[in-house]
Amino acid sequence: MAFTGLFLILFLIVHASINACIFLNDEGKTFNEMARFMSHNWIMRFLELGLFAGLITHIIQGLMLWSQNKNARPVQYAYSQPNKNSKWYSRSMAILGTLLLLFLVMHLSHFYVDTKVALYVKGDAPHNLFEEMKEVFSVNWIVALYIAGVVALFWHLYHGFQSAFQSLGVNHKKYTPLIKSIGFGYAIIICLLFASMPIAMFFDWIK
Amino acid sequence: MEHYHMNLTLKVWRQKNSREQGKLETYQLKGISSEMSFLEMFDVLNEQLIVDGKEPIAFDHDCREGICGMCSMYINGQAHGPWQQNTTCQLHMRAFKDGDTITVEPWRSKAFPVLKDLVVNRSAFDRIIQAGGFISVNTGNAVDANAIAIDKKDADDAFMAAACIGCGACVATCKNGSAMLFVGAKVSQLALLPQGGPERESRVLNMVAQMDKEGFGNCTNTYACEAECPKGISVSNIARLNSEYLKAGLSTESK
């Protein structure tokens, strides 16, 4: 869980950085070049397989944890006050993860599928991902769904980042507070970046 | 602190034995002193039940001074009740007000089956200790206590981990019913000291294997265990358990 989580955390940095190219205001030229590189370079194609493997492993591990943990308490408490001893998001990783998976289905059907169709079905036809983004994010309820997805992502990352280090055996008086701060900063920056994209496109702030 | 008396409504889990279904029963108590311990309040309730010709409530207790770890009660949705770093026997009735309703349940865990009412079987913890929570020592005269130099910080950390009384509040509190804080403390107290060296690898592997076999859940780092532990055992012991387990798993030759 921790290994695959950290791997997905690294992926999000790449994903957010490349997407941030839309803010260069060059009609998506840099962004489209980057997108073309990501879908054509063979190293990236190989890493893409690794990404899917990592994501699927993360999901399978999560499902195994969920089912084992559910079996560990067959009779529930009649009255429990979990908020007295732990944070809601640390207890809600499975539900946040499920929301993210649903979000991913929508997200991939918006952008990933079309990119692959242009590449394979239409024989490497020119594909303007930037224009496609503008089109998708011109619909208000889709923008709202994307922002909801990013909010779920924030809480998932906020717990997941520091939790991964604890699971790998790193808990240190000096470094753990630092890891927690970095995790918080990471979650904030990544999520603000992702949220800003559909919003900026919806309000036509990007040329 | 001002002394006062209170009337209470108690909802207590009643279960005949491990096979039968249990349910919450409601009892009324009058004139409970704020100076009583929670268990003394239960003693009063049981005497009242006996006078009424009813079966008294079975509950575990031994030392009644907060060090034996027997008094396992889930009080108002929290292990050992509302006070921090506290056992049930050390919880006093001044934690409650006149007219309060208090719900009392046994620990809920597949690995801790309910024997009767509030009494659970915690022998799963004993079997985890038997699997590796020991050290090899030479027979003959006891070795001088200061013969082996130990870093002060290691000694302190080992002592902090050894403060675990095995009460099971960590398991009871954890939403996953995980025993990682208990096992983390028991592995840490020996892994930190040279005396624990010879069995260091096999200990962590065997204890974790036994923990899984008993049916405890997995740690998802909500840290609820640390917040509810009567001895304030730190979750850094869980991280140490994880790193000990990873290292032992990589270097062991057994499959």
- What strand order characterises the main sheet of chain B? 2-1-5-3-4
CATH topology grouping of the largest domain in chain B: Fumarate Reductase Iron-sulfur Protein, Chain B, domain 2
Let me know the number of strands of chain B.
Answer: 7
* Greatest contact between two chains: A-B, 32 and 42 residues
Ends of chain B: how far apart?
A: 60 Å
- The CATH class of the largest domain in chain B is Mainly Alpha
Total DSSP helices of chain A: 8
Order of helices and strands of chain A: HHHHHHHH
Output the CATH homologous superfamily of the largest domain in chain B: Alpha-helical ferredoxin
- The general outline of chain A is globular
The number of distinct structural domains of chain A comes to 1
The number of helical segments of chain B is: 8
Total number of strands of chain A: 0
Integer-rounded radius of gyration of chain A = 19 Å
- Count structural domains of chain B: 2
Note down, in words, how this protein is organized.
The complex is a heterodimer of chains A (207) and B (255). Chain A is mainly alpha-helical. Chain A has one domain (2-70, 91-202). Chain A contains eight helices and no strands. Chain A has helices at 2-19, 29-40, 42-71, 88-91, 93-121, 129-136, 140-167, 175-202. The longest helix of chain A is centred in the first third of the chain and has 30 residues, at 42-71. Chain B has two domains: 5-105, Ubiquitin-like (UB roll); 123-251, Fumarate Reductase Iron-sulfur Protein, Chain B, domain 2, CATH 1.10.1060.10. Chain B has helices at residues 38-51, 123-132, 152-162, 169-173, 180-191, 200-213, 224-228, 236-251, and strands at 5-14, 23-33, 74-75, 78-79, 101-105, 114-116, 119-120. In chain B, a hairpin with a 2-residue loop joins strand 6 and strand 7.
Summarize this structure briefly.
The complex is a heterodimer of chains A (about 210) and B (about 260). By secondary structure, chain A is an all-alpha fold. Chain A has helices at about 1-20, 30-40, 40-70, 90, 95-120, 130-135, 140-165, 175-200.
